[in-house]
Please model this.
Amino acid sequence: MKRFIPILLLSPILIFGQFAKVGINGAKFLDIPVSARAAGMGEAYTAVCDDASAVFFNPAGMALTKGLSVFLNNTYWWANINLTTISVAQSLGIAGNIGFFYSGLSTDDMEATTIENPDGTGQFFTYGAYEAGVTFSRFMTDRFAFGINVKMIKEDYPTDNVLNDHNVSGFGVDIGGFYLTGFRSLRIGLAIMNFGPDVTPAGHYDSWANGSIEEANKTFTNYPLPVTFRSGFAMEVFKTEGVDITASFDLIHPSDNIERYNFGTEANILDILYIRGGYELNRDKDISNFNGGIGIAQKFGIGKFRFDYSYSNGNIMPGIHRVSLALGF
Model:
């Protein structure tokens, strides 16, 4: 069985890495990385995540947490969009680990436009979306851990009126595996994120053509969630009494784009200062291809906190800033 586990983890790399299916998915806010530590390492994080933030990258990684772990993050996205995240994980000993998580996106006010008023109506609206759920992870053997998230997903679209609500509700599942190979510190991570049925906006809309309504009260077409396959490796490549350097690699294959190849490093100095860097290949227009960040950790009483910051190069877009706080008790 133990020999069969790494084959299960590695085979999707060969299967999913051979093709690209380009299309359009909904609920794209689920694709935004929510951890400053992960972003600083170029999202090469599937085999690195080991605290409450693991639920957003590989839920099996949460099995590595001990005691109580709390994770908070804020991502400053483009166009004054904010993504706020919280997750909590609690160890239950040999029974495994449980947790819950929430990630919510909000926008500034945007002016509404219509066919009759393409330059604006003077009315303003906002878009919001969130995911919330529970997670469970556990070591099934001394080397292999399994994790699963079950979550609700909702998008709040602007509406014509109270009776014509366009909001979208659905659910998804994230499944992950984490394998300690036994060779030095090499570990392998695998996750399938946002797997679930298609969702459909509520309400109806009018189809326009040549300045007039062609068909009234049409129903919306359903759309799929942004299913993403992640597979990664990580290992400490240099270690002394005061310095520990981790190198990681991820293959990320979204269902609506080509696969990306991510490389990351993290230098841990005296368990106090963390310096990170990462690079992503196959990013559209090289947006967010170069990433970097720092972290500062400190013990307090019976616990420890770590503050993380990351910056992602936007290239033709503005740079992206993230701040995270991780607490362990």
Observations:
- Residues 1-19 have pLDDT under 50 and may be disordered.
- The two ends are 34 Å apart (CA to CA).
- Helices lie at 4-16, 36-40.
